[in-house]
Prior knowledge:
By secondary structure, the protein is mainly alpha-helical. The chain has 13 helices and five strands. It has a three-stranded antiparallel β-sheet with strand order 1-2-3. The model has no long low-confidence stretch (mean pLDDT 85).
Amino acid sequence: MKWKYPREVHDFIRExxxxxxxxxxARECNERFGTExxxxxxxxxxxxxGYRNGxxxxxxxxxxxxxxxxxxxxxxxxxxxxxxxxxxxxDMVNERFGTHFTPSGLKQFRQRHGIKSGLTGWxxxxxxxxxxxxxxxxxxxxxxxxxxxKTRFKPGHHPVNELQVGDIxxxxxxxxxxxxSMEGSQWERWEVLHRAVWEEHNGPIPEGxxxxxxxxxxxxxxxxNLVLITKRENQMLxxxxxxxxxxxxxxxxxxxxxxxxxAKDREKERAEK
Length: 273
């Protein structure tokens, strides 16, 4: 390991950091070795090399709490935290002990001392929102209602960037969707493009069949690149490794798969007879 400072600097800091504060340690080190440590850079140096200064060590938790917080505060927070949010807990503690905890300060206090509230901040399954079934006037002030009016969606509102009928977008899986309607549910508004192209040329896709791409490109939805196969054929294409980027090789693979399936089906029929 290559060090920026000589070995004797490390030895000095490792030995004396247990007895001196960072500002004093930096000054002593600079005078002795000609370094240019500041209080902050000495703290960072110690942290990087694992040299602990030991300041505050040796005090029990009770001694630490007594020196920094009103008597009984820790026990009060420990015994009353379960199920209580940080804001409510901070208000309770401040009222009882005359402290000035903020919600974030109280949250950090509980984290430092391993005190659990049992709250995750998530809505659990089955939990209903507090404003469910209520009119806005029942849970919001008139001022808040007035402020929200500027950004509130109006009936029949459509976002300015909303895609129009005929527009195409791509899914995370790489398939293309084409918008066919401005109203309705997602699948009433959108259609899978390669399936729609096939049906435009050949009619409805039969049950148990699927449309796939001869060149493997999910964005190439031209009718020449599409082929109708069964789900069984699709599985065997993947298993045999016959699906390629070359349309002609894929066609040959499909033909070979169909021959194999036909041969297996005939052999099964003979065995049953």
